[in-house]
Amino acid sequence: MPKPHYEKNIPAADTLMKSMRSMGYSFESAIADVIDNSISAKARNIHILFPVDPLKDIAVGIWDDGLGMDSDELFEAMRYGSSSAEAEREATDLGRFGLGLKSASLSQCRILTVISKKDNKVSAYSWDFNYIMESREWYVRKLSQSEIKELPYSHTIREMEHGTLVLWQDFDVISKSCDGQTFDRLIELKSSVDEYIGLIFHRYIASSNSKEKISISINNHKVRALDPFLESHPKVTTKKERTIAVNDSNGIEQLIKVKLFVLPFISDLTDKDKKLIGGVENLRTKQGFYIYRNKRLIIWGTWFNMKPKGELTKNARVRVDIPNTLDDIWSIDIKKQTASIPKRIQNQLKNIVIQALDISVTKQTHRGRKDSVDDSRDYIWDRMKTRGNNFYYVINRDNRLFQFVREKMSEQDFVYLDMLISEIEQNLPTHQLYIDKANDCVVIEEPDHRADGLFQIGITMIDAKKALDPMPVEEIISQLMASEPFCNYSELKERFINNYTENDK
Known about the structure:
The chain is built from 19 helices and 17 strands. With 505 residues, it is an alpha+beta fold. The protein has an eight-stranded mixed sheet with strand order 5-4-3-6-2-1-7-8. Strands 9, 10, 11, 12, 13 and 14 form a six-stranded mixed sheet that branches. Strands 15-16-17 form a three-stranded antiparallel sheet. 30% of the residues are buried.
C-alpha cells in the first residue's frame, strides 16, 4: 500500500478571518467572552472602559488584575486556536476552543490589541484586520514600548503589578449600523452591557467565597449582580438540589447539579426584587432552564422543547450546573451561547421540569380564595378573591365539562389547551365589559339549537361516565345538571332521564 501523500493547505488569512468575524456575537456577548479570559487568568477585579470624549480616540478597553502574560505567552494567546477543545483544563477555566478572545473581539472591531504585564515587563500584540486584508497573511503585530504608551487606557496596565488589557478600536460593525455615530452608540450600549454582564456572571459577582468572588465595573461604576432565582426571598419555592451522574466522552463520571425555583407573585416583590430579576416585563420569556458552565451562565429562558412557555408557568426556573469537562456532550458552541441536553439525561431533567411547572401552575391557580355565589354549582368561571378584597376570574379546571375534555387529550395537547386558556384569562376584557354593561349593551345571543347541542354533549359525557363508573345514571345526570353550562337549561334533565329510560326499555 502506497504511503499517503499530504500537502499543506493553509487557509487564506483574509477570507477566514472575515468569516470568523461573522459568527453572530452581539456586543454584549463579545464583552462577556473577553471577561471569561480574565476569570480564567484568576482576575479578581475587571474593568470595562467606554470612551467619554468623542473628540479623542474611540476605544473600548477591558482590563483585569489577573496573572498577566509574558511576551511568549501573549504571542501564543493571540494565535487562532491557541488551545484544543479536547485539552485538559483547570476546573475553573471558562475557555474551550482558543478562539473566544480573537473571534469575539474582531466581531466588533477591526483592530484588537492585547497588552499584558508579568514579572514587571509589559508586552503587546495586535491583530489588524485592515493589514490582514491587504497582506492576506497571518501577521500579528508586535508593539514597541513607545507604541504601547500611546494606546488608550494603557496606563492602567503600567500602574499594576500584573494584569492584561484588551483594547478594541475601529468599530466598523457599529459604525455601519448607526450611520457613523459610533460614540453615541457605544454610550447607549453601556447600559445593556451592564445588565447582560450582571446576569451572566451574577454568581461570581455575588459570591460569598472570597476565592471566586470578582468585581466588575464599567467606567468606575460597579456592575450589580442580577438574580434570576431570588434565592434569598422568603417566598421563593425551591426543592432540594439533585445530582445527576453522567459519563464524559472519556468514560469518566461527572456530576450535574440541578435545582428548581418558582418565583413569588409579582405582588410579593419589592422594587429591589424586580430589579434583581432584571424586571418583570418579560417574565414569561425568562422561564425555563438556566444552564451554567463553571457558574457562568451560558443559556437561559428555554425549556429545550420539553414544554411550551405558558402564563401559569412564567415563574418557573430550573438551574443546571455543568463542569467544563462535559462541553462536548452538551454541544456548547464557541460563543458559549447555545447548548443541547444530552439524550442520556433528558428524561431525568424532564421529570424535574414537570415538577417545576406543576408547582408554578398550582401557585398561580390557587393564589386567591374562591368566592362562589352557590357552592352547589359547578361553575365554568371561578371568581377569586385576593387578600386585598379584590377579584379576578379564572376558568374552573375542575368543571365537569373541562375535565371531560381534559381526559380525552394527550399530555402535550393539554399543555397547548392550558396555554390558550391562560391567555383567555389574562386578556378578559373586563373594562370594555363594564362599559357595555353600564350602557345596557351586553346581550347573549343564543342559537335556537343551543339546548340541542348541549343535550348531545351531555349524552356523550354521560355515556363515557357510565362506561367507567357503576354509579346509577340518575346520579350521573344530577351531577351533570349541577355544573355549567347544563345547569342553565333545566329542561335538559328530563330529556336526559327520558333518553336513558327509553333506551332501557
